[in-house]
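Justification of computing resources. Each target in the renewal requires a structure prediction run like the one illustrated here; the chain below, 253 residues long, is used simply to show the kind of job we budget for.
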Amino acid sequence: QNISGGFFNRADFVISAPGQSRYSGRDVNKLAIAVVDELPYTLEIVQPKVPIVRNGVLNLKIVAHRKEEFKTAINIQFPFRPPGIGTTSSVNIPEGQNEVLYPLNANGGAQVKDWQVFALGSSEVGGNAWVSSQLATLRITEPYVTAELQRSSCEQGQEAQIYCKLNITTPFEGNAKAELVGLPNKVTSVPLEFNKETKELTFPVTTDPASPAGNHKNILCQVTITESGEQILATAGTVELQIDQPLPAPAQP
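Resulting C-alpha cells:
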C-alpha cells in the first residue's frame, strides 16, 4: 500500500496572553522518553460484561493493584471518550483503597461500535507518577427497550395512572425493572417488573394535597436489565404529569 507514518509535536516557544496566540514555535519529530524504576501501583479496567446503550449509563470499575507499602490516593482520568460518551473530568481512589467506579453516560447519538478505551492514573511517588491501564473494550449498542408513555393528569391529593407501551428491540432473559424517576415533590410511584414478552405497563401515581400544581415535564422511565450478572441501565422514554388544584367548593346559598 506504500503507507508511511511518523511523529511530530508542535512546540510553542512564544504565547501571548490573554488571547493565547502562537507567535513562535517549531515542529519537532523526536519524543523524549525516560526509563524509571518500577512504580508501586498498576491500574486495571475490569472488562464490563454488558454494553452501555444509547441514553444509558455504565459504571466502569477501575482497580489499583498496589504494592503493600503504597497507600497514597490515586487520581483517575478517562482521556479518550468515544463520540456521544460523557463523564466527569476525574475521580479519586482514596488513600488505602483499591478501586473506584467511573460513571459513563451515553447520549442518544452515541456511535454504536466496540471501542478501545483506557484509564490514566497519577499519584505522588517522589513526584507525580503516571500509569495507564490496559486497553479495554467499551461496547455501545442501541437500547434494548424503548417506551412510549401517555401524558396523565389529576388533582392534588388524587391518584393517576401513566400508561406505557414497551418496544423490546433486543430480547433478554429473566425479568427487568421499570420505574419513574424525576417525579415532583410529594408524588410517588412504584417500580414494575416486565420481561421480553411484556407489551405494556401501567404505573400507579399517588399525589399529596401539598404536591406542587402545574405541568411537570421530563419525568423519566428508567429501565434496568440484568445480563451476565451485571446491570444495563437506561432511560426508555419521558412523560408529562399535570397536577391541578382542586376546584373550590360551591358557595353556600
